[in-house]
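User: My advisor, Dr. K., asked me to get a structural model of this assembly before our group meeting. I'm new to this, so sorry if the format is off. These are the inputs:
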Amino acid sequence: MSERTYNASELLICTASRLMEDGTTAFIGTGIPMLAASLAQKLHAPNLVTIFEFGGTGAILETLPLAVGGGCTFNRAIAASGIRDIVETAQRGFVEYGFLGGAQIDAYGNLNTTVIGNHDHPKVRLPGSGGGNDVGSNCWRTIALMPHDQRRFVQTIDFITTPGYLTGPGAREAAGLPRGTGPYRVVTTLALLGYHPESKRMQLLATQPGISVEQVLENTGFELLLADGVERNPPPSAEELRTLREQVDPDGLYI
Amino acid sequence: MDLTLKQSDDTLHSEAVRLLQSGVGKLIQPPDVEGFRSWNRAKSKRLDDKRMSEAEAVRRFIRDGDYIGTELYGTVRCPMSLVHEIVRQGITDLRVAGQGVLELDMLLAAGRVRALDLTYIGLEVYGLSNCLRREVESGRVEHVVEWSNAGIAWRFKAAAMGVPFIPVRSMLGSDTLKYSSAKVIECPFTGLPIALLPALILDVGLIHVHRADIHGNAQIDGISGFAAEMARACKRLIISTEEIVDTEVIRRRPDRTIIPYYLVDAVVVAPFGSHPGELCYRYARDEEQIKLWVEASKEPATAEEFLEKHVYRVADHQAYLDLFGQERLQALTHGAPGREA
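Assistant: The format is fine. Below is the predicted structure of the whole assembly, which you can bring to the meeting.
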């Protein structure tokens, strides 16, 4: 693939990677967040502290883990502890960013990874919360990564596995979730999305290269707000793609 | 609903702790902390030789209907040789704490699970668990109660502390809490809503470790998952270990002991005991074998064929390893995560 063309996974990875700041802590799940973190460490964030749920803190991502507890998640790490230590670290406010995925998301950033249909008689039984709820409850700012279509971006999700802003402003705090936490960004194949500071509803911040605002709206099953001045995301750079393909995932496990 | 705290000093007016919410999920294993204390008091503290085979350990310590838990999970330091033996012996009607990949998939495929405290069952990079889908969507698993990953680990921690519940800030406001058996109260110190998770005391815990002595003093390298908590939350604990070491090895580095012997009922020697999963510093995942299960698990008939070949028609763990041969297993040790090049 040339350095001007890229696939949907590469676009998601590069967009997410740019959100990872040097010198911050980020709770990383398997798949795209891991690749994004590895790319960020190699380009602009060498001191990104990766935090993996089963105990790895500060791993240098040299090879790609296939499991969130796999050996690579504490490769050359600064500490190898366990799940309680990791989530308690987030619970007492040490973890800035949390990266999440989901089968469904609504306008308030609530995520479903539990069931499609009714809980007790599900149409599709999904894996469940895993660490998702812990991340979405306790990290300061959560970033969701997902493909963008009407089946995933829905008016009402079937099950709130992981809390976003729940029913709107003040709802997280009323439920007892840590003050000042919540969804921050959604990175998709079509757009970069954020949340309106007052209404806490999802809003369009930027379109992905070659995607129109109309296309984003058409693929969103709820009313999407537009930020003042919707921007256009730059495409993945030649350096990002080269690093991703040659150093991050040379065996093409994910891209 | 108010839970009134009676104050003996009548200069203090009576205060009420407000119960804000109760999860609708079944409390599959009530937190009997008094029973647990008595159980632990009666447990032998003698330095016995607890070595035995998988077959003997499962026969002696696991019964139909028991509530069991495995640690870490499916593809990472998982007690796979013990899980294979449970399937082989036909133990059924199990209640299970579920953070799982291959191990719980196999119990589900064999139809041995009646109730689940579930946080995650899936195949990670390979997607949804078809076995979970079949067993839950058909209603064959009677109860599915939701938790977060840390929620389950904290429930073990509460049991390990010897207290009936633990207050946490995960799960609040979500359907995960609604379909759990947690409760939410107004914190009597801060006024904040806080989730109370019931202690989870297992009938039997299964943990795979890097090394142990014949008494069950066990050490784990790398991340420890939730081994320390779960080991202290079991009535009966079966350890499988890559190797047996002399007790002097343990005594030279006692800081490394995660599981002291008095928690342990059986020590099973199981080299490559996590196969086809990985064990850090020892061996890598056997991707070919994992992919075989991913494919086989898609349909009941092919899952059954897989279990026939790798579990039912295999006498024990050594015979299972013989299916793969020394050369292939040795090759896995070269790719071991974290191993010095």
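One thing worth pointing out at the meeting: Chain A has seven helices and 14 strands.

User: Perfect, thanks a lot.
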